[in-house]
Amino acid sequence: MAVCKYSIPSEECTVSTCCLMQASIHYLPNLSANATYLAIFSALFVLQAILVLTYRTWKFSIPMLCGVLLEMVGYAARLWMRSEIFQPNPFILYLITLTIAPALISASIYQSLGVVITKRDPLISRIKPTNYTPIFVSFDVVCLILQAAGGARAAEGVREEDRRKVPTGTHIMLGGLALQVASLAAFMVLSSDYAVRYWKKHYAGTQKARALDDSYSEEDRHVSPVQNFSFGLGLATVTISIRCVFRVAELQGGFGGRLANDQVLFMVFEGPMIIIAVAVLTLFHPGRCLRVQPEALTAQSPEQKPTESVSVEVTEYDNSAVFRPLGSAFG
Description:
- This protein is mainly alpha-helical.
- The chain is about 65% helix and about 0% strand.
């Protein structure tokens, strides 16, 4: 490792003439790990593209695809940094893309909860299902603007080696990330509240009776596609929240801080958290899990409880989302 020579401008440095402490990050990005993440995100992008062409879930899939594409660009930039570790451009590209990509993926998540609630039981929701998307996507747009503006300001400071602009940009990015954490937390609280209210209304007090009822078959115990999607939505929200909390902690110390230069922590709490979120929403894609045919809603068995047909009774929120494939509610 070369000795630090701060008299040499960073753009003229090489790994043989300067130390890594003079670079924007104080380590060389790992080749195999970053290439693996790039390959995984590329595969997920292809799968998401196939799914949107199949199910026409444009509103859900467009921000998702944009977010995954930015993840791909970000990890490609980290690979570029291996040969240009002292140059500002690959660092700037990696910083901005990986910072704002999860906000786009979050937009897809925010659009989904209202559709799930409309499908299951809108009457017990504290917020009208159609209001979830405008409320949370509005916060997401603000987060995106703050993170992009902060990233651009910090990038300008890195390129010009202006020590005043970098902290300013970092603080703006930090504000955007903190708002995203708060928004995700509020989303999780409302989602959890709805899940508890739904369970109390539809399942509480009936589990023991069902266990003793011989007519309650294994088929009745089958987990529905909507439940699968709800699980995926919850897991994706949690993993993105973990990633955002980590990035807030990371940026609090600035680009020169310990967390910002800990490659192991970055590779654990950044890429894998987003990979899990995208993968689970690919496996339990809304186009596949939320598709409902009208005959499935009207063909009720004689023994079915009235509460189980609530999706037909509450079409005042979104008739089209109930009486056509719900995947197209994203279209």
